[in-house]
Amino acid sequence: MEQESANKAGRKERPGRPRAKVDTGKILALYQDKKLSVRQVAGLVGVSHTTVARRIAEETGQLRAWRLPGEE
Description:
With about 70 residues, the chain is mostly helical.
């Protein structure tokens, strides 16, 4: 987990809205194992699809790529 330090003015380095608390393991299980879409996972977990996409990208490095039938 990131350690938050204070800048010269005594404020946190990461200002703004706090990150949503979600179970990243559950997100990954639904996305990778059950092959649900980002929007389907978001609906089940109760966060936005953008939050789901960011968490997947943070953990895996990328989202699942779409391929045409017959491509590998």
